[in-house]
Amino acid sequence: xxxxxxxVLEPVYWISKLDLEPRREQKPSSFNKILRSRLVEx
Length: 42
Prior knowledge:
Elements: H1 9-20, H2 29-41
């Protein structure tokens, strides 16, 4: 999967996985907000 995807799409893939899968580890919500804000700007 990695080989065929541009590096730019990789973060989007992992963010979508974090959103779809139940959170096993508690991560700061601000981290997700920053990532999403960057996606909106891009």
